[in-house]
Structures
1.
Amino acid sequence: MDKDASRITHHASLSLKAPAKINWFLHVLGLRDDGYHEIHSLMQKIALYDVLTFSPSDDLTVETEAPIPMEQNLVYKAAMLLRGASGVKGGARIILQKDIPAGAGLGGGSSDAAATLAGLNELWSVKFPREKLCALAAQLGSDVPFFLHGALSVAQGRGEKLTPFRSRKTVPILLIKPPFPVSTAWAYGEMKRTGWYTERLKLTNKAGKDNNIEFLISSIERTGFGEAAGIIANDLESVTVKSFPVIADIKKKLIEEGAVISLMSGSGPTVFGVFHSLGDAGKASKAFKGCWTAVVNTITD
């Protein structure tokens, strides 16, 4: 994990903060031979966190209020994967405090898995390098390796090929999640079922080069999008909105409430709006009764 993951050690325990993320763009370029979709995305961590605490134990347990069987929790799967790869015989008591909503398109489960790999790598003194942890992370989910890197990266392949970029200035964000989850597997499954594919490599034409990515990042940090606004798009929206049209309504309402730009994150249903200040974002949040909301900054390196 990088510097945004704070470490607190006490009586041989270790705590890590696992941040959420948003996608500044997400383009799906086609279906791969391995069944995954080829993507191109710019992802950034945001200041919304789960907290994981790791303590030595004879057994391997995960304690959380999240309503999911332990064996299905990505935290448990990550711990078992690292223990198997390292040959560690001991266990750990892992306490997971969830503040990132599940099924939201914000990468909470993936971030928790990455924090687990990093935390147990330290607790168990495994000392795997980041490259080894990233290889394990890719076995858990396409977004998991991203959370072992810096705050801002372009993701390619199925999400595991990462190119880091520098982020210099925080951006105020308002997150709006309607009261239902959306499964990433469902969204991609719908894309596959309906035969949806990007007709052209949009992003290669618009923002594929590093200097164009730098231009986009600069535009984001100025909250003055101009020509860059056309690059900020999420191909999964066209699939998800068909089943959940309220997402389009939220996008529109965010603009009406003063957002400079609005977009669905990941497979949704969370929509984020960019504002000029946290105060403006906070005022706008009052217009979304019945939805989960959060006012956050992006994270910088």
2.
Amino acid sequence: MEPLWKPSLSDINSSNLHQYRLYLKQKYNLAFGDYHELWQWSVDSTELFWASIWDFFEVKSSQDFSSVTDGEQMPKTKWFNNSKLNYVENIFKNKNNGFPAIISLSESRIAKETSWSELEKEVAAIQAVFKNCGIRRETE
């Protein structure tokens, strides 16, 4: 069966996956022959994999993590112990008004695009509802 689409070399070289592989080569001297090798490494070296993902995507935090996991088996694992971050800040840090924030597809309607400004307004509205309901961040 013929594929419906095949990425160009330019598409491949500009992908996050390709950039991540270059990052791993530069920072950790790790090279992978194909996607499966990279996947296997991510499974075998879970702590290093997730720490490298945190660094590669430049996760913003007010407090860095002390360990990637607490050593518990899934699903009880606690991730990025002691870190403090604002999820919304991380989602919006690379916003680009030249592209939609979300493209939602459905079999029953045409594709719907949500702009970054629309998404920001919707997030602010949800935040206001949470505040009005008395929902606050957990204190330790």
